[in-house]
Design goal:
Strand order of the largest sheet: 6-7-8-3-9-10
Shape: globular
Family: Belongs to the ABC transporter superfamily.
CATH architecture: 3-Layer(aba) Sandwich
Order of helices and strands: EEEHEEHEHHHHEHEHEEHH
Bound molecules: adenosine-5'-triphosphate
EC number: 3.6.3.27
CATH class: Alpha Beta
Enzyme class: hydrolase
Largest sheet: 6 strands, mixed
Radius of gyration: 18 Å
GO molecular function: ABC-type phosphonate transporter activity; ATP binding; ATP hydrolysis activity
Structural class: alpha/beta
Domain ABC transporter: 1-239
Oligomer: single chain
Length: 259
């Protein structure tokens, strides 16, 4: 796929094959094309050229109901959480059910007991069921992002597209949020594609890293294959910054699935 803005290519001739159930980190310096690549997958950005194939179906040609369904299959997590601040946490999570709920019921906010139970259970998995009745704008950044992940989970997606989900969080909240994404990936087998600035976080959580520079893929492999030498090539002058440890000292290395 390629995406051009004017005469500049944000993504240029990128070809990736993504297997179900992976935890893929997309890394690279600012402006490398990571967000544009993710946004093309759920068609928030239209590719200028190329195709996206999912199970043999050309996603780039979908419209109407079928596009709506594809977007329901791809839950998006944003850096700025995108919760509705004046609504309580439980309602924010229930909004993730919108694509699966008849319009008239969601407009009247007539959620069934079952839907509420699903939403509460999602919150419980990330240890935040006790704040279900609080307004979303009263929460810390880490709590808000966990609510956003619970909302994504109740959407029952096949893929989670996370665009810099930890960029505005401190190290402890970074770990909580990455653990939540890892749990979704390992426990439910949902594929996670995650744009990450911190190389250390990417190495710790992802089983595959895709490195982008100037809109192109310049590295694609396991974290072990991404040597410091390759990373320095990828990040240039930003290398020292992204290779600084951002996780607290008690974080175990490797892919330990949280209990
Ligand atoms: N809507 C747009 N209009 C014009 N140019 C854009 C637009 N969106 C992105 N770009 C340009 O495309 C290039 C890639 O941007 P993109 O946001 O995908 O990079 P990124 O790797 O996600 O960077 P960052 O980490 O800073 O978000 C950049 O040069 C950016 O300025």
């Amino acid at each position: 796929m390629s995406k051009r803005f004017g005469d500049k290519f944000a993504v240029a001739d990128v070809s990736l094959e993504i297997s179900t159930g992976g935890f893929i980190g997309i890394i690279g310096r600012s402006g490398a094309g990571k967000s544009t690549l993710l946004r093309m997958i759920n068609r928030l950005a239209e590719p200028s050229a190329g195709r996206i194939l999912a199970d043999g179906n050309d996603v780039t040609r979908l419209s109407g109901r079928r596009l709506y369904r594809w977007r329901a299959d791809c839950a998006m997590i944003f850096q700025q959480f995108n919760l509705v601040g004046r609504l309580d946490v439980l309602t924010n999570v229930l909004l993730g059910r919108l694509q699966r709920t008849p319009n008239w019921r969601s407009m009247l906010k007539l959620w069934t007991h079952e839907e509420k139970a699903i939403a509460l259970s999602a919150l419980d998995q990330f240890d935040i069921a006790q704040i279900a009745a609080q307004r979303a704008d009263s929460l810390s950044g880490g709590q808000q992002q966990r609510v956003a992940i619970a909302r994504a989970l109740v959407q029952e997606p096949r893929i989670i597209l996370a665009d810099e989900p930890i960029a505005s969080l401190d190290p402890r909240n970074t770990k909580t949020v990455m653990d939540a994404l890892l749990r979704i990936n390992k426990h439910y087998g949902i594929t996670v594609l995650c744009n990450l600035h911190s190389l250390d976080v990417a190495r710790c959580y992802c089983d595959r890293l895709v490195g982008m520079a100037g809109g192109r893929v310049v590295f694609d492999g396991s974290p072990e294959c991404l040597t410091d030498h390759v990373a320095r090539d990828l990040y240039g002058l930003e290398a020292d910054e992204v290779m600084d440890a951002e996780l607290p000292a008690d974080v175990p290395a490797g892919l330990a699935v949280p209990a």
